[in-house]
Amino acid sequence: MKMKHMVLVGAGMVGLSLAVGLRQQGHRVTLIERGQRPVFGTEPELRVSAIAHTSRDLLVSLDTWQGLPAQRLGPYQAMEVWDYDSFGRIQFSAAEVNQDDLGSIVENKVLEQILWDRALAAQVEFLTGVSVSAVEQDQQQVQLRLDDGREITADYLFAADGGKSTVRSLLHIPQTFWDYEQTAIVATIAISHPHQNTARQVFLPTGPVAWLPLADPNQVSLVWSADTARAQQLLALSAEDFVRELQVVSDQCLGDLSLHSERLSFPLRMQYAQTWLVQRALILGDAAHTIHPLAGQGANLGLADVKSLLKVTATEFSQRDLRDWERERKAAAVTMIGTMEAFKRGFGTPNPALKFARGLGLRVADKFAPLKQTLIKSALG
Question: Is residue 98, in this structure, part of any structural domain at all?
Answer without folding.
Answer: no
